Amino acid sequence: MHVSLTIFQERFALSALLDRATSYVNQLKEKIEELKKRKEQVQLQGDGDAIEDQRQRGGLMLPVLSIREVGSTLEINLITGMNVNQSCMLNKIFRLLQEEGAQVVSASYSTVGSRTFYSVYSQALYSRIGVDTSRIIEKLQTLVNPVAQQLLG
Questions:
Q1: Is the whole-model pTM more than 0.90?
Q2: Is the same domain home to 100 and 39?
């Protein structure tokens, strides 16, 4: 009798544990859906609202561009505020590099607080021809300047 009671208690404890775990997973799913909805709402507000918001809070940040040539690799580092669309900025950088005969070797971005850090590494598509680094630098600065002008606007 004692053995069957112990087995019953273990099964009951396991069942309760599974119920709690299921409940927790469902709560997490609801939280994810809520966060997705909030993200969509923020994205629908548009960049203009975000810029105005940052101006009002004093959180205005101009883009910072750093470019280094390390051997045959061109390293591009860009820091922007939250008001810049990450995927759009990376896409523009990729397109610019491709137009200039460079190939993206590695790229990443991460957002920390109100800042987004981009790192892009590229090399010449054809090593014999190479790329005109000074022209890429000039075009990247032109790409970043409209963002700065929009912030200061």
A1: no
A2: no
